[in-house]
Each structure stands twice: as C-alpha cells, then as structure tokens.
C-alpha cells in the first residue's frame, strides 16, 4: 500500500537487541529549548562500585560524557561499560540512554573481571537481549527465564560481550552481535568471552548515602527537564513530555512484537518523524525518506506504529 518493495514481516525471536544511546536526526520542528546552556549544567556522578562524588559538565553526547567521567577519575574512557541513572546497581531499567534528567545522578560502571564460557547452542534462540553503550561495547540487557543462557550462572545481565569464538566484538553495534549469535548453528559449541561490571566489596559506601537514602529525602531523578542528545553532537534541554513518553513506550512495544527489538531511541526517532504528519501516508513517506528505510518496515508495521502515534496524541493510551 505504501511502498511496493516493502519486505514481508520478520518474525520476532528471543535473541533481540536494544539501543540506548544513539538518536539520529530528523527534519522535524525544534523542541522547546531552555535558556539554560548545556555548558553550564553540572551532573552528580560516582563510580558504581564506590567513589567520591564528582561533577561532570560540558558534554553533548554519550561518548563525550564518558570522556568527562574518565577525566574526573583519571582512567581511560574505554574502561566505562555503561552508566545508570539514580542507582549504583546494574539495573537495566535505569540505563542512561538518549536523555538525562537535569536532576539525575549518574553512576558509571567500570570494566571488571573477564570470564570465558564454553556452551552448546541447544536451541535456536539463546534468550538474550543485547544493547550497546553507544561507544563500541555490546552487553547483555536481559536474559529470558528458562532459556539456554538462564541456566548458566556465570553469564549475567550487564556483562559486556567482548569476543565470540575468538572474534572481537568491540566496536560492533548491538544488532551485529545479535546476528552473529543468531547465526551460530543449533547444536554447535561456541565460546563467549565476557567482561562483567566492577562490583563493590561493601554493602554500603558513605558517599552513596545521599542517593541510597538516609535522613533526608533525595530529589535525584525528580525533575521535569531533560538534556536530550541529538544528532550531530548537539544536546537540547527540553521539558518532560508525558504524551511523548506514552507514545514512545507503545511504539517500543510494537517494535519488540514485530521485530524482536526493544529500542527506546529508535522509538523516539519514530515519534519525532511522526511530528507534523496528518495521516499514515505522510508518515510512511517520511520513514521512507529517512535513514530508517534500511530497516525495511512492512506496511503492517507502519500502520501499527501510526496507530500508536495517534492513540497517544488523542489520549487513548
């Protein structure tokens, strides 16, 4: 209906991937920008395994943020696996993605112990959801209960996938790593080398008391303004948009249902493409004119996505 050469829908599988950092640009009207300059913003930051609190500022994308954090703590930026917001735990629901609330507290998770596991692929799907940090490291975001990987205690959520059968995965995107895993023949034995996040040897570290809780209630993560990373190394300060948040969440659920992908930044990009579009035809044309064309969305998927957009706009979800 929209485009004759759209491919047929692709069935979702358990080995999916997620992206948490890259928001590609669209030809959309600019969002409201706060008069506050991003150069003047300062964010509280600690190392997740324990450290004093520092302040980071002057960054416009995730790679620059990692560099600023690394400079504060005097180690290479390549040591950072990922960051979480408002928790020192490797909570995948709190991953730093394409935006940071102006009141958010950043925790950087540094490389820890490497480990290598040999296993047999007894099922077509391993039960992994893979994401990446936007700086060349793919890692495990979710492990499906009852899956092949779930039965192996040495493989955990938050582990960076460094090598597969000796092939270096550093620098590859999440979907590339997911495809390599998916293409491993059923019944074959393969080796996966992982690097886990550095863990604290203590249950409580004094500098974290203001975040974990205490006599005073923390305001971290409670603000309405966010610093949103945009394409081309730009960042904008925007008011939190509840309608957009609902729409992005629904779009994300549709992507996972159709493609086995759970990707907040891709969902946000789709929402932004829909801005100013009056019907599904205009929406489909905008997708085909963007860099999303290479993903080969089917007509059915486009219709479902447009339905999510209009439902959110009209307050039906």
Map the helices and strands:
Blueprint: E1 16-19, E2 43-47, E3 54-56, H1 62-73, E4 80-85, E5 99-101, E6 106-120, E7 128-132, E8 138-143, E9 160-164, E10 167-168, H2 174-183, E11 189-197, H3 209-212, E12 225-229, E13 235-239, H4 242-259, H5 264-274, H6 280-288, H7 299-313
Parallel strand pairs: 1-7, 2-6
Antiparallel strand pairs: 2-3, 4-6, 5-12, 6-11, 7-8, 9-10, 9-11, 12-13
Helix pairs in contact: 4-5, 4-7
Rg calc: 20 Å
Task: Provide the succession of SSEs.
Answer: EEEHEEEEEEEHEHEEHHHH
First CA to last CA: what distance?
27 Å
Kindly state the percentage of residues in helix. Answer: 10-25%
Please give the count of helices.
7
In terms of per-residue confidence, which ranges show pLDDT below 50 for 5 or more consecutive residues?
8-12, 22-36, 202-217
What sort of overall outline do the alpha carbons produce when their principal axes are compared?
globular
| Proportion of residues in β-strands | 15-25%
Mean pLDDT, as a whole number? 81
Structural class: alpha+beta
Main beta-sheet strand count, sense and barrel state = 7 strands, mixed
Total strands: 13
